[in-house]
Amino acid sequence: MTLNDLKWIPRGLCLGLLAFAIFGPLTNLVLWAVTERWYFPHALPLEYGFTYWAKVFSPRGNATVSLLTSVMIACLTVVVSVGLAIPAGYALARLKLPLRGVILLLLLIPQAFPNLPVYVNIARIFYQFGLNGTILGVVLVHVTHGLVYAVWIATAAFSAVDGELEEAARSIGASAMRTFVDVTLPIAAPGLLASSIFVFLESLDEFTGTYFVGAPDVSTLPLLLYTAGSGGNYQIASITALVLLVPSIAFMFVIEKFLRADVLSKVGR
Amino acid sequence: MGGYLEVAGARVSYGELEVLKGVDLSVAKGEFVALLGSSGCGKTTLLRTIAGFHTPSHGAIRIDGRDVTREPPDRRGMALVFQSYALWPHMTVDQNIGYGLKIRRVGAGAAAARIAEVRALLGLDALGRRKPGELSGGQRQRVALGRALAINPDILLLDEPLSNLDARIRLTVRHEISALQRRLGITAVHVTHDREEAMVMADRIVILNGGEIAQVGTPQQVYNQPASDFVAAFMGAENVIDLDVLAGGETLIVAEGPHNRRAALSRQGRDLASGSAMARFRSEAISLVDARGSDGEPGPGVLQLEGVVGQVSYPGGLWRHVIHLGERTVMVDAEHCFEAGTAVHLRIRDDRLYLFPRS
């Protein structure tokens, strides 16, 4: 046995640690989701079962309503964000604005400030307009956040559409609008789909803004998770977290399938 | 009224840079015109200006007497075939070809018939359901052409559509396109940097240089009667020598120089004053004779140069000689090989010699 044969040990240890760091918390989450009774000093749950799942999804539980609210808010956020990002991204990609880079950077600036003061101020302003505690208010907060991703990715998606493809349509008789609908939009669609997915996921996970603007009238899954977690109700918190994971994982596969490398490479150009 | 398509004094600038410096061009209905020039001469800009993708700062574009200078590209009744083909990757071959018909709200039955007709015309019969990504370069080129032809355009604009093809395919496609254009009677403007392509395909050639038209004429005219030194060089008369010319009436007397005999040439409409002149000629337009076997007198209307063979190579067909005339070198193609170091006489008939005043 030589020293070379032992080389796998440090590598194996590193991989093991990495795997533990990634899968450890997830395992804990899954365990808690199927636990009936589990207390110190036991290493594993004492009793397994699905009674909490039934509780979470019972008509009287808040999870179903919160889930529906979350999905509705996320969908509305996608519609508004992408609806604004399509013209904005197209203009940024096509008009060769000298300030294009500056504008894209400016869009990032709100993200540079700490979230909390921003949302507290938004909540104060929304209060004057009666937007606090309404779905519309929460959607608007999510849009301020999601628009950045949407515009960046839409700009990249439109930049990847060769201008000659549009000119080819113009030259054989298509109006500018028709060209956009028939040629530009379908070719940019995978990128736009990716940007919708990002916005959807961001909205689904968003907590701070929802908390300040929406709570307690609008309850989304992250708010439910927070309430359950801070109340020591780990089963409900874990189940909610698992439910939140589903769309994220599903969309990761979609992105992998649809988002072409040449679109990704143009992000921020 | 002039031609069917008219460009009148068109000037186009990109910012500070003026790319077209006042171009006048008239194309008759059914004519095939080639815009020929090296890269950066403004030929593509001129084509795109005709198509409507650039607006001239001065001048006008007219089709059949109608001023279209300010009209958007989709209202000009033209179709542009791009160098990159610009096929829409998300549409099949049929959808690409049929798009112009869809825009024109042609009924489904009539459109399908027209698409089938265009496909048959271009030999794309089996490929209707393919996407552009699944086609070879030559097939894409034909789809791009078919997409333009499907709408029966008044004017077909071709932006170097052959330059991305293999050399062998290019030769056949050349003939296919010009045969098609003649058969359908379409007015066509073709941009190319390939001299031979322009010569073979076009009824008339427009040679552009630095944003201006250097010469317009039939292939024979621009080849045999170049209007300027630039055109002569561009059309392949690469050999250049200096001569002293005495102009008088119908004859031009070339004074004896260090490497040439005195010669009397006929004027043949050349606009030339007495003084220093530049002479250009093609490497194949010369008869080469050994100086020792030469009978001395080249005969009337023939210019004789005297030089020494520097290098010989065989590119195929004819022997190519590099000949030193003092400091100048010229290329001469001959049927027989003259070895390096041989003293030779170069005889050029005056109709093959292009003379321009030295600028």
UniProtKB/TrEMBL annotation, chain A:
- Locate the transmembrane regions by residue number: 12-34, 67-90, 102-122, 134-158, 179-201, 234-255
Principal location: membrane
Q: Which PROSITE patterns match?
A: ABC_TM1
Pfam hit, one: BPD_transp_1
Q: How does it sit in the membrane?
A: Multi-pass membrane protein
Where's it found, cell-wise?
Answer: Cell inner membrane; Cell membrane
Keyword set for this entry? Answer: Cell inner membrane, Cell membrane, Membrane, Transmembrane, Transmembrane helix, Transport
The record's family statement is: Belongs to the binding-protein-dependent transport system permease family.
Return the protein name: ABC-type spermidine/putrescine transport system permease subunit II
Q: Which organism is it from?
A: Hoeflea marina
Per the UniProt record, the lineage of the source organism begins with:
Bacteria, Pseudomonadati, Pseudomonadota, Alphaproteobacteria, Hyphomicrobiales
TrEMBL record, chain B:
The way this protein sits in the membrane is described as: Peripheral membrane protein
Cite a single GO MF annotation: ABC-type transporter activity
Mind telling me which residue stretches traverse the membrane in this protein?
Answer: none
Q: Which GO terms describe its cellular component?
A: ATP-binding cassette (ABC) transporter complex
Alphabetically ordered keywords of this record: ATP-binding, Nucleotide-binding, Transport
PROSITE patterns per the record? Answer: ABC_TRANSPORTER_1 (PS00211), ABC_TRANSPORTER_2 (PS50893)
For whether the record's keyword set contains rRNA-binding, the answer is no
Predominant cellular place of this UniProt entry's protein: membrane
**This protein's superkingdom?**
Bacteria
Q: Where in the cell is it found?
A: Cell inner membrane
Q: Which residues form the ABC transporter domain?
A: 5-235
Q: InterPro entries, from UniProt?
A: AAA+_ATPase (IPR003593), ABC_SmlMolc_Importer (IPR050093), ABC_transporter-like_ATP-bd (IPR003439), ABC_transporter-like_CS (IPR017871), Mo/tungstate-bd_C_term_dom (IPR008995), P-loop_NTPase (IPR027417)
Family, per entry: Belongs to the ABC transporter superfamily.
PANTHER family named among the record's database cross-references: SPERMIDINE/PUTRESCINE IMPORT ATP-BINDING PROTEIN POTA, SPERMIDINE_PUTRESCINE IMPORT ATP-BINDING PROTEIN POTA
Name listed for the protein in its UniProt record: Carbohydrate ABC transporter ATP-binding protein (CUT1 family)
| Native organism | Hoeflea marina
